[in-house]
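Running co-folding for flavin-adenine dinucleotide.
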Amino acid sequence: MLIKAQMDEIQSFLADASNMQGGHAARVVFPESAQEVADVLGEATRERVPVTVAGAGTGIVGGRVPFGGVVLATSRLNQIKEIVREADGGWAIAGAGVVLADFQRAVNEKGLIYPPDPTEWSCYLGGTVATNASGARTFKYGPTRNFIRRLKVALATGDLVDLRRGSIKADENGLLRIPLPNGRSIETELPSYRMPKTRKHASGYYVARGMDAIDLFIGSEGTLGVIAEVEVKLLAKPEGVLSGVVFFSSEKDLLGFVREARASSLQTREDKKSVGLDARALEFFDAESLRFLRSHYAQVPMDAAGAIFFEQETTQITEESLQAAWLELLERNNALLDDSWFATNEHDRREMSEFRHRLPVLVNEWIARHNQRKVSTDMAVPDEEFAGMLKFYKETLRASQLKYVIFGHIGDNHVHVNIMPRTEEEAARAREIYTQFVKRAVSVGGTISAEHGIGKLKRDYLRVLYGENHLREMARLKRAFDPACILGRGNIFAEEYL
Ligand SMILES: Cc1cc2nc3c(=O)[nH]c(=O)nc-3n(C[C@H](O)[C@H](O)[C@H](O)COP(=O)(O)OP(=O)(O)OC[C@H]3O[C@@H](n4cnc5c(N)ncnc54)[C@H](O)[C@@H]3O)c2cc1C
């Protein structure tokens, strides 16, 4: 097994996309099989050496930044083992270190899709499972969790478990028993909190009545075990996709459009109708975002108060009727139809995706020019609270006179507020405002992280969401799987809870 210890060789493993400083580790190990992962962990437990699991390092909450011990890199678990096409979809088995973009390409070549689509496709499959990643298409398909059929997980004790969805469930009293290959078993009590009733949630361990054991590991951010191999569900590639970037001169109309588009989509899915308005993505740009984008896209209308990017899957038979249904909905909500853009072919669709992805890039460039770090939220709230939350964001930010843009997954009531400080003083004010947003989101039943996870950077906010006792329950759960507390130390909750 490859082991690297020279500083210049391991430097890139001491950080991730969060820019968190101060990471350090003695060495990085590169296991090439699930058994080697288990062996590394068993030894680390015996010697009480902390282990931080590294995927591709695109995480933005400091989850893979090590503070001591060793880094276990998953990059050599990079084999796509099987992609199987069935009558209506398919499945695949791949190592945790397969790059998501490579996996998506391989699956596409077989006429299939893997819906989870975080914006940054250089992440690894295992990283997306460990963070329960999601993206624009999550509005229709849900997060990574919904596509996981089986996980091979190496536990800190050196045991290797194969968890198939449906095979192990918690009982009605919240007790979970996972048999191990050596005849022993892990028995633990689930934490007693209830997760927020938001459409997306990536804050702390997944806990639900009668839950499947596999769900505990999805989103556990490298604290309960190392995901070595993943089996996922795949879907048949849609025949066509209709997309649009539609502008509104009034935010009230825009929100009305989103409400109707969401309600129709949910209705179509509930009725299991094959034809009907059913958005795959509903993404928001506020007026400030459009102002920013206008410097590159002169065709963004001057009187636009906001825009929505939407996608709908179609077939040759349904394309026309669905186009008509979307136009009717847009007209009813006073969209600026003459100024809006629509695409049914791959080339135009790519241009629209490019428009959507350009915004965070422009924001990052602006921030770099000002030598600051952006302060970016990841909260989601229940449907009925979204309009109030958006108003609160805007009123607070306008009063502060800080520069900001708001964009993101409005279909799931999950937008990212990006505050862009120009000076240290503004950065401090931005962080204070972030805390106000957290408190407000929690007070209306929201979650503090809908997709990026907690890592090391958002632990204090998790305490606001769940409180001390529930953090202790999470730590107790962790100890059942990781008695020497070697794995992912400092992720989700501070080490003092262990
Ligand atoms: C520009 C940009 C855009 C992004 N957009 C999105 C988005 O739209 N949606 C979204 O959800 N996220 C997004 N992210 C965040 C990030 O891409 C995801 O969280 C991704 O899933 C992380 O994968 P990774 O392989 O890079 O993991 P890493 O960053 O290496 O690790 C993330 C966490 O998972 C743990 N981990 C990694 N692999 C394993 C494993 N095999 N077993 C156990 N634990 C493991 C690590 O210890 C760490 O705690 C974005 C990030 C960037 C930089």
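Result summary
The radius of gyration is 23 Å.
The chain has three domains: 2-73, 80-236, 240-443.
Job closed.
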